[in-house]
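If you are new to this repository, start here. Below is one unmodified record pulled from the training split, so you can see the exact layout before writing a loader.
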Amino acid sequence: MRVLGIDCGTECTGYGLVELGRNDALASIAYGGIQLSRQVPLPERLATIFDKLCALIEQHRPDRVAIEDVFYAVNVKSALKLGQVRGVAMLAASSNQLSVTEYAPLTIKSAVVGYGKAEKKQVQLMVARLLRLEEIPQPADAADALAIAICDLHTVATIGRQQAAAR
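And here is the target side for that same chain:
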């Protein structure tokens, strides 16, 4: 199973594709950040995010998409802009017939580090370790996106095991 994790942002939207192999081994397929300039009007930034996410989906053919749920915003204007980016990410997934799952930050950290209030650096180090990467993925938004994808893969695998045991 292959999951595209998306860490939505108005200046940088991180993405990370992770695949779960037969031996439950995690592998990083691709990751990076869609860098956006504040000088570009928001509608143009949203179009860029949509186009680049659609291109990633077409190129890597994930089975699912996972994004972080909105949890906190400094102000209402920031929250609205972040909501628009999240909507564009969901639209890119749904227009490619992919389901989207949303995860709270505490859930993501728990799935990756084992502790819901882990520091950002701990999450980044654990992502690199779980994916057997030599360096912490950059930009930081890419590491977050990989964490979101890992969370989804762990969650789906756990649910699958629970359903199998219930039969």
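Two things worth knowing about this chain: Residues 37 and 129 are 31 Å apart (CA to CA). Strands lie at 2-7, 12-20, 26-35, 64-68, 100-103.
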